Amino acid sequence: MILVISYPGEEHTDDVVGRLQRAGRDVVRIDLADFPAASGLSCSWDVGAPERYLIQTPGGTVDLAGARAAWWRRVRAHTLDPLMSDPDAMAFAMSETNEAVSGMLDALSCPWMNPREADSAAHHKPLQWAVARQVGLQLPRTLVTSRPDDARAFIAEIGVGKVVFKAFIAMLEAWRETRLVEESDLAHLDSVRLAPVIFQEYVPGVDLRIIHVGERFYTAELDAQDTSYPVDMRMVIGEAKVRPVELPARLEAQLLALQRRLGLVYGAIDMRRTPDGDYLFLEVNPAGQWMFVEERTGLPISQAVADQLCAMADRGVREPVGV
Which stretches in the chain have pLDDT values below 50? Predict the structure, then answer.
């Protein structure tokens, strides 16, 4: 059995699950938002019997102890019974549900893509940047700060119009594009005291979306330099020139070292290649999207993800993290 944890309608998950099922694999897909309101669980440790991790699915009861591989894709928060209204009771129920579900998943002996703890830690950009430098990758000059004076000094040293600011996480509820710092922004720098902000030197060049799956890399060049918004290719992906490219072997080795130190089996890596041929690391998204790359380049990424899950299931043992 291959366990897939993601929510309904997530198109990347839908595509890969379809490939797995067509290949004859037994796939169980669960949405964490179903617990505890719409789905039950029962974990047991009886004398002389193996442990059991039973969950309720639309197709019946499934024992997750039989999982041979698991895919932690994109998840939603738990959902409580709508009849609950007392805040203290709701907080308690949410905490207890998280402890039970998380503990159950962590107890599974199968390998994960990605291991949940590693996936969570690797979402933190300061950690990414520290590890990236340790493996020899170059970064643009970067400042994370909630101190207005530090922000002013950083911008003054590099220059207005040569620094971008951006968010740590692309939240659907408060999505923000990457923007250049302009003169009009200087009057608002005191607001960084309200929450830390990423400031980064803006380096012209072409973007690279690098999809890492297992031991392989699938790379697309996204040239947004002549588009209406070259600062953030996500805003103009339809205008950008997109083509598959190969990375230098040394760079691939550094990126593989990065992913292994972060404990990731999968990651969507963003880099910038300068006109001089330098490669600058920007970030890695442990649950980043790839279908827009696959559609524009023909790179077989969805099949690679499915094949990786099958290979992990065939081995069926948890692999050490960070080696």
Answer: 320-323
